[in-house]
């Protein structure tokens, strides 16, 4: 297996193709489906935790059938490495038979999924997979970029204003929090069950740390600016490491 010496990206930047797609939707008269009315207050979603019935148990994510070797670099953690490949540090620890996931060292070689961080990751299309999760919008704003599938955006970009509260889209535990993924600002990844993750990028400030348990609607970050210097949140949902269309899971507005 070849050693990975590049810095893979698993989240697409805002692209001109995405802008063209959104403009075509607007010209088709569907703008009302992509925008919410403005509010006189900060526009932040409610932050008070809501008591919900626990999600049904789910099976552990399947072990990948194709692997590549990754060499641990200075300052890296399993959570950071997992974030690059669309999986959690817990998954990497289990797949590499690591008894203590906090004890990795520079130069150590671990196996990582061969497809999750490739330039053309697998995408799920068609009917959404039942998640057993009560999803909610992470922020109120206009959808600027749609999920485009292979070769395009792996999530959606939601516009707003700098400093707006970003909320957890569902109950879960913070699997990663930091800026280790170059080009995406301060990033938070939440593990909701054994199969579903959500990711929140371009934040200005983080209000949650790795290991924190969060509830749907709880503020986890403040909106920052995307690569085009426009205030926005890049939001993804992943099923077993594969990007899925968030609009198939978020409630209709």
TrEMBL record:
Compositionally biased residues, Pro residues: 54-64
CDD domains per the UniProt record, alphabetical: LysM, M23_peptidase
InterPro entries for the chain: Cell_wall_metabolism_enzyme, Dup_hybrid_motif, LysM, LysM_dom_sf, M23ase_b-sheet_dom
One Pfam family, short name: Peptidase_M23
Region (Disordered): 38-65
GO molecular function: metalloendopeptidase activity
GO cellular component, one term: cell outer membrane
Superkingdom of origin: Bacteria
Sequence ranges assigned to domain LysM in this UniProt record: 68-112
Similarity remark: Belongs to the E.coli NlpD/Haemophilus LppB family.
Protein name listed in UniProt: LysM peptidoglycan-binding domain-containing protein
Organism: Candidatus Macondimonas diazotrophica
